[in-house]
Amino acid sequence: MGADKATGGAAYGEPPLITAVRAGDIELVTRLLDDGSDPDARDAHGTPAFRLAVGTRSAVVARLLLDRGADPAKQGPEGPLPLRVAVDWGSPALLDVLLEERVRGRLSRSELLDMRDLAHRWHETGVDAELRRRTGAEGTPVRTRVQDDEFDSVDECSLGGTTVRDGHAAILTRLEQLLGIRAPFETLMDRALAHPDPDHAAWGSSAILLSLRRDPATWESAAALRAHEDPRRRLFGAHVLRLTHLFDGSDEDPFAGPALDVFTDWAAEEADTSVLREVLVALGEHPGPRAEKAILLHAGHREARVRWAAAYGLSAWTSPPAFSGPAREALLQLLNDPEPEVRQRACLTVAEGRDRDPALADVLAALLDDTDRRIQVVAVYGLALVDDDRCVPGAGRLGPPRPGDPEEETYLGAAWRYEWRRNAR
Question: For residues 294 and 327, what is the distance between their CA atoms, to the nearest angstrom?
Answer without folding.
Answer: 11
